[in-house]
Amino acid sequence: MQVPMGILYQPLYITTITFLIFLSIIFVPGSAVDPFTQALLSLKSEILDNSNSLSDWILPSDSGVNNPTDKIFACSWSGVKCNENSSLIIGLDLSVKNLGGVFSEGQFSPFTDLLDLNLSHNSFSEKLPVGIFNLTKLKSLDISRNNFSGHFPSGISNLVNLVILDVFSNSFSGPLPKDVSQIESLKILNFAGSYFSGSIPSEFGSFKNLDFIHLAGNSLSGKIPSELGMLKTVTHMEIGYNTYEGSIPWELGNMSKLQYLDIAGANLSGSIPKELSNLTNLESLFLFRNQLNGKIPFEFGKIISLSSLDLSDNLLSGSIPESFSELKNLKLLSVMYNDLSGTIPKGIAKLPLLDTLLIWDNFFSGSLPKDLGKYSKLKYLDVSTNYFVGNIPPYICSNGVLLKLILFSNNFSGGVSPSLSNCSSLVRIRIEDNSFSGDISLNFGNFPDLSYVDMSRNRFSGGIPANIALASNLQYFNVSNNPNLGGIIPEKALSLSLQNFSAVNCSISGDFPPFGPCKSLLVLELSMNNVSGIIPQSISNCQSLVSIDLANNNLTGRIPVELASLPSISVVDLSHNGFSGSIPAKFGSSSSLKLLNVSFNNLSGSIPLEKSFKVMDGSAFWGNPKLCGEPLRPCRHGPNGLELGSRRTQKLAWVLITCGVVVLAITAAVFGVLHFRRGGKGKWKMVSFSGLPRFTANDVLRSFNSVEEAKDLVPPLVAADCKAVLPTGITVLVKKIEWRPERMNSMLDLIARMGSARHKNLTRFLGCCYNKQMAYLLYDYLPNGNLAERIRMKRDWATKYKTIVGIARGLCFLHHNCYPAIPHGDLKANNIVFDENMEPHLTEFGVKFLNQLNNGPLRARVGNETGEIDRAIEEELYRDMYNFGEVILEILTNGKLSNAATSIQNTSKEVLLREVLYENDVAPSNTVQEEIKLVLEVASLCTRSRSSDRPSMEEALKLLSGLKKQG
C-alpha cells in the first residue's frame, strides 16, 4: 500500500514543533515555568489544532519576572480550570475545538489532581491513552464524539471516584470493559454508538448507584443478560440498535425506578413480558422494529405514568387492550405495522394528553371513536391501510392543533367533516382510496400552512372548490379518480405554489383558465375529462413544468409552441383530443423531452426531422391521417411536406393497418391462451406512472419478447437488468424482482411511492408489470453510463462540483420532499447514471427495501407519515449520508480513495487536502481551493462514526451551496 507523502512528514512536523516549544521554555527569563504549564505546552505541540483554538496557550514575555512560584501560568488559558489559589489544575475542557491527532501515553500523567477531563466533539484518533486511568481523582471523563479505536483499554476500574463516563460515538472494537462495573460511584455510563461487539457483560447488573446506561447503536449480540434486572437505581436505559438473540428478559420488570426503556431495532423475538407492567415509574417504552409476537399485555394499563409507547414494526397480534383507556398521561401511542385487529377502544379518545396516534398498516376494523380529538390536543393521526368504516370523527380538530390527518386506504364514507374547515393548523390531508362522497367542503382560505392534499379514489362530487387558490402554501393536490366530481378548473388554481396538480378521470369540463405565475408547477395531470378549448399561451409561465398529461379530453386548436419551449419539459401526452395544425418544430430541439404522444388528433404536416422523433414508435402519432414522416409513412412531394396520394391509396393503407392490428390482437390472444394452459404464474397487470403511456401488460411483455424470442408471454429475461424498447419507441431499463404472493401488496405500496418520486436528479421510475410471482420495474434508460465507469476520468473541478451537487439534490428530494421519506438504501457510484447533458441521476432508490420486504426475516420498514418519530427510517437516512460522503471522496480523488471513513479519520485534514488538490491539478493558491476544502469538509461530516452526528441531507446541500448550516 502506498503511503501518502504527507503522512511521512507528519512526525517531522510534530518533532519540529516540540523542539521549538522546548526552546521557548528554556529561554524564558528566570526559567520559572511551572511543570503543569510545561505539560500543557507539550500537549499542545502533540495535537493538531486546525482552527487555532488554543491560540492563547502561550507564555507571556515577562513570565519569569515577579511571578510567585506557587502560581500556575496556564490557569488563565482557555479550557483550563484551577483551584481558588491557582496552585492546582482541577479541570481540563478541550471539547468542541476542532482538535485532532494521537495522544502519547504520558501526556496526562502530571495532572493527578484533575477532577474533570473533557475531550469531546473533536477528532482524536487511535488508542485511548491508558495513562488517563491513573488520574484517580477524576469524577467526570468525557471522550465522546471522537475517533478513538482499538479495544477499550483495561484499568478503568482505577477511577474509583468516577461519576460520569461518556464514550459515546467513537470507533472502538471488541468487547465492553467488564471492570467498569467495579466503580461504585458511577452514575452515568454511555458506551453508545462506538462499535463494541460481543454480549453485554452480566457484571453490568452489579452497579450500585448507576442512574443512566446507554449501550445502543453498537454491534452487540447474544442474549440480554437477566442480571440487568438488578439495576434498582437506573432510571434511563437504552440498549437497542444491536443484534441480540432471544427475548426480553422478564427480570427487567424488577428495575423499579426505571423511567425510560429503549430496546428498539434489536432483533428481539418472543412475546412482551407482562412483568414490564411492574415498572410503575416508566414514562417511555420503545420496543419498535423487532420481531416481537403475541398480544400486547393487558397489564400495561397499570403503568399510569406512561407517556410514550412505541411497539410498531413487530409481529404483534390481537387488539389494543381496553386497559389503555387508563393511561391518562399517554401522549404517543404507536402500534403501526403489526398484525393487530379489532376495534379501537373508545377510552383512547378520552386520554387527555394524547397528541400522536399511529396505528397504520394493521387489520383494525369498525369506526374510529366518535370523541377522538375532543378531549386532547391531537396533532398526528395516521390510521391508514386498515379496514375502518364510518365517518371522520366530528371533533377530530376541536382543539385546533391537528397537523396531519392520514386516513388513506380504508373504507371510510360520508362527507368531509365540516369541522376540518376551521382546522387552520393542518399541514397534510391524505384521505385517498376510501368511499368519501358529497362536496369537498373545505375552506381552503383557512389553511395557511397546508402543503399536501390527496383525495383521489373516492366518490366526491360538486367540483374542485373555487377557493383552492387561497391555500398559498399548497404544493401537492390530487383528486384523481373521483368520476362524478365535475365542475371546472378553478380560476387561479394553477397559480399557486403547486408542484403537482392531478385531477384525472373527474368529469371536469369547461375551458382551461389562463396560467398565472406557475413557476413551481412540475406535474399537471388532467387526462380522461371533458376539458375543451385551447391550451393557453400563458403556459409559458410554467417554466419548471416536467410532465403534462391532457389525454382523452376535448381540446382543440394548435399545440402551442410555448409548451414545446419549456426548458424542463419531459413528458407530453396530448392524445385523444382534437388538436389541429402541425407539431411544433421546437419539440425537436428540446434536450429534456422523453415522450411526446399526440396520437388520435387532427394534426397534419410532417413530423419534425430531429433524431428524438425518429426513434419514437409510430403509435405515438397514430390516428392523425394527415400526418406523415418518420416513424410513420414517408411524406411525398408538395408544400409543407403533405402527402398528395389518392384517397384510394389512403383507404388501402388504413385497411392494411386495421388488418395488422387485428392480426396482432389474435396473436396476443393465442399467446395468452398458451400461457394460461401452461400454468402461468397468474394474470399480468400493469401500473404506469407519470411519463409512461397507458400500455397494457401485454404491450410491455411483447416488447421484452421482441428482444429475445419466447414461446409464451412469460418474458425470457434471465439477467436482473436489461434494456427493452416499448411501443412509441421508449427505451427503458428493465429490472426483474421476484416476490412471494403474500408480500405482493406491501411491495406494491412501496413501488407506488417510488413511482411518485419525480426530480431531475432521479432516474424516472416509469412503471411496473407484475403478476403474483414476479415484477418487472421499468426505468428511464440513460445513455451515458454510470459514475463507476467514469470515476477515473480526469475532469475539471466545475464538472465534479456539478456532479456532487446534483447527487445531493436528488438525495435531498428523497429525504425531505417525499412523504414519508424514501431512503436510497444503496447509494454508490454504480447507481449514479448520467443523461445526455451529463447531469447525474440516482437510480435503484428504494430497491433494497423491496428486497427486504420480500426476503428478510425482519419486515422492512417503508416509512410513515409522521417520519419525525420514525427512528428506523432515520437510521437509514443517516446511512445514505455516510454513503454520500464516500461518493464525494471517490469523485474528489478520481476513484483512488473509496473508503472515506478510514481516509478522513486516519489522515490529517491538511494532508488529505493536499492529496485532493494534487488529484485535481489545483495549486494551493488557487481560489478553487476553498470550494474543494468545503466539499471535503462535507464528506468528513457525512462519514462521522456516530450516525446522529452526521448532518441531514438538507443541511449538507446548504453547505455545498455555500450557505451556513441552519439548525
Give the helix/strand layout.
Elements: H1 5-26, H2 35-46, E1 48-49, E2 80-82, E3 89-93, E4 99-101, E5 116-118, E6 123-126, E7 140-142, E8 147-151, E9 164-166, E10 171-173, E11 188-190, E12 197-198, E13 212-214, E14 219-220, E15 236-238, E16 260-262, E17 269-271, E18 284-286, E19 291-295, E20 308-310, E21 315-317, E22 332-334, E23 341-342, E24 356-358, E25 363-366, E26 380-382, E27 387-390, E28 404-406, E29 411-414, E30 428-430, E31 435-439, E32 452-454, E33 459-461, E34 476-478, E35 500-502, E36 523-525, E37 532-533, E38 547-549, E39 554-558, H3 561-564, E40 571-573, E41 578-581, E42 595-597, E43 602-606, H4 611-614, E44 626-628, H5 647-677, E45 685-688, H6 697-707, E46 721-725, E47 731-738, H7 744-755, E48 765-770, E49 774-780, H8 787-790, H9 797-816, E50 832-834, E51 840-842, H10 847-855, H11 871-892, H12 900-905, H13 909-919, H14 928-942, H15 953-960
Parallel strand pairs: 3-5, 4-6, 5-7, 6-8, 7-9, 8-10, 9-11, 11-13, 12-14, 13-15, 15-16, 16-18, 17-19, 18-20, 19-21, 20-22, 22-24, 23-25, 24-26, 25-27, 26-28, 27-29, 28-30, 29-31, 30-32, 31-33, 32-34, 34-35, 35-36, 36-38, 37-39, 38-40, 39-41, 40-42, 41-43, 43-44
Antiparallel strand pairs: 1-4, 2-3, 45-48, 46-47, 47-49, 48-49, 50-51
InterPro entries: Kinase-like_dom_sf, Leu-rich_rpt, LRR_dom_sf, LRR_N_plant-typ, Plant_receptor-like_S/T_kinase, Prot_kinase_dom, Ser-Thr/Tyr_kinase_cat_dom, Ser/Thr_kinase_AS
Main location: membrane
Transmembrane segments: 12-32, 652-676
